[in-house]
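For the sake of clarity, the format in which proteins appear in this thesis is described at this point. Each number in the token line that follows is a code from a learned vocabulary of backbone shapes. One such record is shown here in full, so that the layout can be seen directly:
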Amino acid sequence: MVNEALKHILQSIPHKPGVYQYYDSNGKILYVGKAKNLKKRVSSYFNKEHDSGKTRVLVKKIADIKTIVVETEMDALLLENNLIKEYQPRYNVMLRDDKTYPWICIKKERFPKVFSTRRLIKDGSEYYGPYASAKMANTVLELVHQLFPLRNCNFDLSEKNIESGKFKVCLEYHIGNCLGPCEGKQTEAEYDEMITQIRNIVKGNISVVTKHLKELMKTFAENLQFEEAQQVKEKVELLERYQAKSTIVNPKINNVDVFSVVSDNEYGYVNFLSIVNGAIIQSHTIEMKKKLDETDEELLILGITELRQRFNSQSKELYLSKELDVEIEGLKLTVPKIGDKRQLVELSIRNAHNFRQERFKQSKIIDPERHSKRILEQMQKDLRLPQKPAHIECFDNSNIQGTNPVAACVVFKNAKPSKKDYRHFNIKTVVGPDDFASMEEVVYRRYKRLRDENQPLPQLIVIDGGKGQLSSAVKSLDALGLRGKIAIIGIAKRLEELYYPNDPLPLYLDKKSETLKVIQQLRNEAHRFGIEHHRNRRSKASIKSELEDIPGVGQATINDLLKAFKSVKRVKEASENELKEIVGLSKAKKIHSFFNS
């Protein structure tokens, strides 16, 4: 039986790749696992019966679950490996030493060799990876050697040795796998150009290499060397399918803390990543309630202090998501802009966002009032409203093909649909498809009634349409004396821009903002509700027109028939005796004859 706390955590876990960690009631880590889809994998532990006794015991002990979101499945695999080595959880298979994963090394020497290794030696050589398996690293090396004829000998190719003729070319030169730098048949500059292209491949910058190869392929084709051009083409295709390296590990990044912050009106969230020996070994996010409208920079400083103390961090360098106007003695603060360092900061930011979303989902389940209050406060701020829009109404017109014009009004209370308050409007005063006039009519009718009946008015009106529909709605508010008493905006479909009365410039909200999502939900719901009513009207009109074509049959008879038979189809199929029981013999004969003549 899953307890309530775990239920709430399970409901908020994202459908993304990453690593999950199980903790017992004492906060001790029990198990670390990876998943292509965190939500599906973690939920599977709790929604099925396990054959393994150890797994059943593990599930019973789980008191808390934490997740770390990453970009790819390979990233999850590597991160899982690092965390298991660091914490050695009781229910994980024990891993071997740090040589578990291979790297690709570009040796620091003249005419560098490129090879796979499990040992990282600090001799100035370049290391790329780690790769999830030796097979993967060898695949990359095979690609490199197919593209570029590198040497694989262990000769010391110093200028002096080459000039003295100390070495002779070997079989590799004669079969085309090496260009003979040992005899000076290839210059150091030419060889270094190949190393530059290889460096791009293992870094994942394959577009540069691809461009180079495509130019080479074009040259071969122009010189009618079609076989060589085809070989290069195959290499380009192979290269484009290749993805070189993980985004979360780099052996040059050593003993660093990464901090990022995201926030909303009420809370700030600071994420912490600990990088030791080039690998992530720790991730944690804290939530801080704002008291005095603190800035993100203030929250970040507080979070750094708290998390470094909590985890007893000794790192001397911090990568941050924001510049801080503060100097911390003994610490180097950096805001990376590009490269692996920036990717680590972005990973930290994603985890902070993910934690924030999990908290939102949990609060929506546990404390819906707090959740609604937070959204309304955010909407008030984003839309520059004088008060929280606890009561919102949205209008949309429907007059497909110019027939049966209708409008819909949907109502949201505390950022949730209040379907009992939805209203349909049949357009009465407008002839033909005129969206502007129709909007003016329904807004006037809606708020005249609310005003006359002393019913509560909304804090915000949303009009589905641009400046034209908005201006029409504002005319009605002016006529009713409600201008300034109710905030009103229009949302245009093209770029989801928001318009205000008498303001020619629209407001563009972040596409991921909750405020825009609520407004889009309002608009979509009004559209759905209006289309549904319009469809029903057209259907009824079609039914009635068919029955009204029968000579001697009036509206009262049509209503009796539809009430008894439910549809025109059943009326058509009814026998004369069945019709007689509903409308009498005379009309039954007319109806039966009309449909069966």
User: Anything to note?
Assistant: The two ends are 69 Å apart (CA to CA). Residues 95-99, 243-248 have pLDDT under 50 and may be disordered. Residues 514-548 form the longest helix (35 residues). The longest strand covers residues 279-289.
